[in-house]
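Example record

One chain of 90 residues, shown exactly as stored in the release files.
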Amino acid sequence: MNLTSLWTFVLSTRPAVPISLPTRRPACFPSQAVWNEYSALARESGSASFNYCIDCTAEYKARMATKRLCKYPGTFFVKVGKIIEGRRRK
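Predicted structure tokens for this chain:
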């Protein structure tokens, strides 16, 4: 699947409920531009329960936590089918 067909798929499967994301870049994102792109895609493809930690990795979380840039250091990771998702502790 190329990026054009992926984007077409994402746009055709928009969530029924808008998601809520911070307007300011979380410290774990390297730049405002990266956050803007990520949040735009997340709004198109996420669900009402979406949060940005879902796309993190254990390695990246560990690096950000060491640098004190991870707001949710209790995030843990679970395998869902063939995908590993980050989940925030409640």
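Notes: Residues 3-87 form one domain.
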